[in-house]
């Protein structure tokens, strides 16, 4: 029995051996074709920055100019390489090895130790380039900006912040762009003082918000106490001081606004009837005056402007005075308080007139009858009264003087 089995095994042995070898070779060919060596490009692997504290200890701030991501070429068997992506690799740059040209070599390694010997990794550009800059810190006072509208009839009169000073630290070029440190708070429908908290926001000179992860602030939030008080509308009056240059007068005074909203505690608001601007002077001037003054300077203590930046714009128009002579006849002068037992006769000198002075628009329309010239005769005795006292009625905006002489003769009937 054993001899039969042996005979079957050895029968055509070499043919069977060749068949096995050919099968093995065919298997190797198939394996090599289906799992051949390939190369794959993987883009955008983030580069981790190591030992950045080394530069910070030198009071330097760095920014990556080039090389915050890296592209690699991976070579290996298809079954390994085809499934690899960005998340399968770690890219690092050790900033403590930065060269004098501010460059650092990037190293890329697979996360899985099992494939490190199965693939080769080549960086297309393995250099990170840094921008180095001086680190500075500046202090800024905290400003509060409100949005929304308080309840009708109320206004935000002021605020206090805690802290009121913020330190901003970072690259010199970035920190020096900061012009305002602001806390924005919502005051919609508020009608009483309150305590709030808001985030610190940095703004540049153009009013744009600054967002820079290299800038650090000493306080990210600030506590704010807002003073909210009721309002009252009061008139604004302007009292011009001084006299213009001789020969000139004030033609008109214009100003805006003529009313303004003030705010404060109710009992203090009741005492405010008007706001008077009383220190604008035109002394010695012969040209128009235009000026803007802040109303803050003219309101009482503990009273606030509903609009803190409210100004009054004042225009004082000056005009040169003109003069005009009004001819006066004796018949133009009314004799009053005469007695029935006397006779009255008035004679005026040839040069007798009323010289009126004022604005051209006023002077041009002046006539003698507007001055109502008159002589009161009650206390005058019989006789000749040289330089008789002729009295005139004042006309607003007009000055006058009498030129010449008047002689009044009183006789008995």
Quick structural overview:
This protein has 413 residues and is mainly beta. Helix content is 12%, strand content 50%. The protein has helices spanning 2-10, 13-34, 53-56, 78-81, 172-175, 266-269, 360-363, and strands spanning 37-50, 60-66, 69-77, 89-94, 103-110, 119-123, 127-147, 154-162, 165-171, 180-186, 194-203, 216-217, 221-241, 248-256, 259-263, 275-281, 289-294, 304-305, 311-320, 322-327, 334-336, 342-348, 353-358, 374-376, 383-385, 399-403, 406-412.
Sheet of most strands: 16 strands, mixed
Question: What's the alpha carbon Rg, rounded to whole Å?
Answer: 50 Å
Shape: rod-shaped
**If you average the pLDDT, what whole number results?**
88
Total E-strand runs: 27
- Oligomeric state of the chains? single chain
Residue windows where pLDDT falls under 50 for at least 5 positions: none
Output the structural class: mainly beta
Helix segment tally: 7
Question: How much of the sequence is in beta strands?
Answer: over 45%
Characterise the protein shown here.
With 413 residues, this protein is mainly beta. The chain is 12% helix and 50% strand. The chain has 7 helices and 27 strands. The chain has a 16-stranded mixed sheet that branches. A hairpin with a 7-residue loop joins strand 10 (180-186) and strand 11. The protein is rod-shaped. The protein starts with a helix and ends with a strand. The mean pLDDT is 88.
């Amino acid at each position: 029995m054993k001899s039969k089995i042996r005979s079957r095994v050895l029968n055509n042995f070499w043919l069977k051996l060749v068949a096995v070898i050919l099968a093995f070779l065919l298997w190797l060919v198939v394996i090599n074709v289906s799992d051949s060596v390939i190369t794959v490009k993987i883009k955008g692997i983030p580069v981790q920055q190591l030992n950045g504290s080394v530069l910070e200890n030198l009071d330097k701030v760095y920014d990556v100019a080039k090389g915050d991501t890296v592209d690699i070429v991976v070579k290996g068997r298809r079954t390994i390489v085809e499934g690899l992506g960005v998340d399968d690799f770690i890219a690092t740059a050790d900033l403590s090895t930065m060269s004098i040209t501010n460059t650092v070599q990037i190293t890329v390694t697979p996360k899985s130790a099992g494939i490190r010997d199965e693939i080769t990794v080549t960086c297309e550009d393995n250099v990170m380039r840094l921008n180095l800059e001086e680190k500075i810190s500046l202090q800024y006072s905290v400003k509060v900006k409100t949005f929304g509208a308080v309840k009708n009839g109320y206004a935000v009169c002021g605020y206090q912040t805690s802290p009121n000073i913020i330190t901003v630290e970072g690259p010199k070029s970035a920190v020096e762009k900061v012009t305002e440190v602001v806390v924005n708070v919502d005051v919609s429908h508020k009608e009483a003082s309150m305590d709030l908290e808001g985030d610190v926001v940095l703004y540049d000179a153009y009013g744009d918000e600054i967002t820079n992860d290299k800038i650090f602030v000493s306080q990210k939030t600030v506590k704010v106490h807002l003073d909210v008080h009721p309002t009252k509308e009061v008139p604004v009056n302007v009292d011009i001081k001084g006299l213009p240059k001789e020969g000139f007068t004030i033609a008109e005074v214009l100003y805006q606004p003529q009313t303004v909203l003030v705010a404060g505690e109710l009992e203090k608001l009741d005492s405010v009837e008007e706001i008077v601007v009383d220190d604008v002077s035109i002394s010695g001037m012969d040209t128009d005056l235009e000026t803007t003054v802040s109303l803050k300077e003219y309101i009482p203590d503990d009273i606030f402007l509903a609009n803190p930046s409210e100004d009054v714009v004042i225009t004082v128009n000056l005009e040169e005075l003109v003069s005009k002579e009004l001819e006066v006849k004796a018949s133009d002068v009314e004799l009053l308080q005469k007695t029935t037992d006397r006779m009255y006769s008035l004679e005026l000198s040839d040069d007798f007139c009323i010289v009126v002075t004022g604005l051209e628009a006023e002077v041009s329309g002046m006539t003698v009858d507007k001055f109502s010239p008159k002589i009161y005769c009650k206390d005058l005795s019989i006789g000749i009264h040289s330089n008789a006292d002729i009295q005139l009625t004042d006309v607003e905006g007009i000055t006058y003087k009498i030129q010449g002489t008047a002689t009044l003769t009183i006789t008995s009937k």
